[in-house]
Design goal:
The structure holds 2 protein chains of 2 kinds.
Chain A (H helix, E strand, L loop, with lengths): L2 H4 L16 H11 L15 H12 L8 H13 L5 H19 L5 H26 L9 H25 L3
Chain B lengths: L9 H30 L5 H33 L4 H36 L8 E5 L1 E4 L7 E4 L12 E4 L3 E8 L4 E5 L6 E6 L5 E6 L5 E5 L12 E4 L11 E8 L4 E5 L9 E4 L4 H10 L5
Antiparallel strand pairs in B: 1-13, 2-3, 3-6, 4-5, 4-13, 5-6, 7-8, 7-10, 8-9, 9-12, 10-11, 11-12
The chains are: A mainly alpha, B alpha+beta.
């Protein structure tokens, strides 16, 4: 049979869901809340889920939320992950600005270029966390930040796929 | 920032301009709050406490589920080769009973000697007991979330220990949950002592779950694999005679040790009052507090 016939029946021209404008921000808040999971480890190798979903949305579309929401979402992320308050606010607002400038300079992005761009953003995030820890009195050798960075870079495609699926659902396609 | 070119519409042009302004304002506000967090961390205690209150109870509930699940899995291994496990445990138990009788006799003698010297001792009871229900798994800092908060009497700066050893100290409290700075965090320095010989050492976390131990006196490396480090009571914060870690590897002029209290496997974490509040208040006024 034709594959489309096996798929779930959906109305043609269904249109966006009612809260489509708020779904991306909600998913970012939910990803920040994942920091509250009862995972007790002695090495901090999990990626920053909030930032991962944030850049997944922004690299997918240029209008997931009004630009000033980046500061509010960053504040929520700082609260739930225990980073110093203001770290995610500044970083996520700067990411919105940087990605907007990059969007203006490039016409399109390939899958691989997008992955490299996400890797660069995650590396900047990791480096800033390392510098902040050193400033506060917890200096670590930089090699300890490389495994979490590698893990985050490899998790990014999964997060991008998930975000793309959610985007298709919320827009009713 | 959806359109690259706003076009002739004044409204669209203004909208784009103000959205840029909003983002730059967000960056400036973020940097200002960050500087405030670094310079005066106590400013955000209320807000961080409220966030802990929101996530703490959820994490506690989920922790019950995972604890049951892991209990089932680890319980199954108890049945593998049960007879020889049984024999070995019985042998260990007999040896430990002998040591325990010795230790009780020494304790009694200790009490008599202290009474003879007319030393006064304050006993410190536990203030609250809670479970470790979360950790900072996405940060280079080593924090843990504890399921008791200021409602149960927990205050910032109190030491936290478990039956196995020292866990850390409280750095943030909400009403229902609090945040613990683990001994394996880079910024946690505990004045300690080597159990074998009583030599003073300093234990500092390495940020990856292990501890750096360095002797305070210059000389030959005094450590041996398997040595136990205990707190010495210096500094007035941590009570003395609490085990901290066991040495696993020797370094140039120190050793690497693994904490005896593994945060993932602690059943109860006990929060105690600071050992000597006057001494630790002096320390706190002469140095910055951590995050």
């Amino acid at each position: 049979m034709v594959r489309a016939a096996l798929a779930q029946p959906r109305r043609i021209g269904k249109g966006p869901s009612r809260f489509a404008a708020f779904v991306p921000a909600t998913t970012v808040v939910f990803a920040s809340l994942l920091a509250a999971l009862p995972i007790v480890t002695s090495a901090g190798w999990y990626p920053d889920f909030g930032f991962l979903v944030f850049i997944s949305w922004r690299l997918l579309r240029s209008d997931p939320w009004p630009p000033w929401w980046a500061a509010a979402l960053g504040f929520v992320n700082d609260l739930f992950t225990g980073y110093p308050i203001g770290f995610s606010i500044a970083l996520w607002s700067a990411t919105m600005l940087a990605l907007d400038l990059i969007d203006r300079r490039t016409m399109w992005r390939d899958y691989w270029i997008e992955w490299v761009l996400a890797a660069v953003l995650l590396a900047i995030d990791g480096w800033l966390q390392w510098r902040l820890a050193a400033l506060v009195g917890a200096p670590l050798p930089f090699t300890t930040m490389l495994p979490p960075l590698a893990i985050a870079i490899f998790v990014f495609p999964m997060s991008a796929w998930l975000v793309a699926r959610i985007d298709r659902w919320r827009l009713g396609r | 920032m959806a359109t690259a070119r706003p076009g002739w519409s004044r409204r669209a042009q203004y909208g784009l301009f103000f959205s840029f302004l909003a983002v730059i304002a967000g960056i400036i506000v973020g940097l200002f709050l960050l500087v405030l967090s670094l310079v005066a961390p106590a400013t955000f205690n209320g807000v961080r406490g409220a966030a802990l209150d929101v996530t703490g109870p959820i994490a506690s509930g989920l922790h019950e589920v995972t604890a049951t699940a892991t209990g089932l899995v680890s319980g199954a291994s108890d049945y593998w080769d049960a007879a020889s496990q049984n024999g070995e445990l019985k042998r260990e138990r007999r040896a430990m009973l002998r040591r325990m009788v010795e230790a009780k006799a020494i304790l009694q003698e200790n009490g008599q000697l202290k009474a003879a010297l007319q030393l006064r001792e304050q006993t410190h009871d536990a203030i609250a007991a809670g479970r470790i229900v979360g950790s900072s798994f996405n940060s280079p800092r080593r924090f843990a979330i504890l399921s008791v908060g200021s409602k149960d009497g927990v205050r910032v700066g109190m030491p936290v220990r478990s039956a196995d050893g020292l866990v850390g100290r409280i750095i943030d409290t909400g009403a229902l949950a609090s945040r613990v700075l683990l001994v394996s965090d880079r910024a946690n320095i505990v004045p300690a002592r080597l159990l074998r010989g009583g030599m003073a050492v300093i234990s500092q976390g390495r940020g990856d779950g292990t501890i750096d131990v360095r002797p305070l006196e210059v000389g030959r490396n005094p450590f041996k694999r398997g040595d136990i480090i205990i707190t010495s009571g210096t500094g007035g914060l941590y009570p003395p005679l609490v085990p901290i870690a066991r040495i696993v590897k020797l370094d140039d002029d120190g050793a690497v040790a693994i904490p005896l209290a593994d945060p993932a496997n602690i059943s109860f974490a006990i929060v105690e009052a600071p050992f000597e509040p006057a001494a630790s208040a002096d320390e706190a006024s002469t140095q910055e507090s951590t995050p």
